[in-house]
Design goal:
The protein has about 110 residues and is α+β, with helices and mostly antiparallel strands. Helices cover about 25% and strands about 25% of the residues.
Length: about 110
């Protein structure tokens, strides 16, 4: 029941696409992965218990690793997976893709 309430709040919130090497990102530099700009996409941080889909620019990614993952959480979506010491962010092109993946993630996370 608690997860259903949480899922409802996720769907109510409005809130891509990897690189093997580490990236540094200053506030003025775009977040990129495999030469694709993901800063204008939408993502969620799986290290946050009550994660919601947000615009990528809010994550303030610094010194990140990046890889592309296909069929994220059993969906047909591919996503850029950006990681730092404290964040594990999945980035998508649209808020709908992000919400779909987040719903699947909520279902499989213990």
């Amino acid at each position: 029941m608690k997860r259903m309430a949480y899922l409802g709040s996720v769907l109510g919130a409005l809130v891509l696409s990897g690189c093997g090497e580490a990236k540094q990102n200053a506030a003025s530099q775009p977040i990129t992965c495999e030469d694709k700009v993901v800063q204008k996409g939408f993502g969620f941080n799986e290290n946050v218990e009550a994660s919601t889909c947000e615009m990528m620019k809010v994550f303030d990614m610094q010194d990140y690793q990046c890889s592309v993952q296909q069929n994220v959480f059993g969906t047909s979506q591919s996503a850029a997976h950006l990681t730092t010491d404290s964040k594990s962010v999945y980035a998508f092109s649209t808020p709908e893709q992000c919400i779909d993946a987040l719903k699947k993630w909520i279902e499989i996370v213990p």
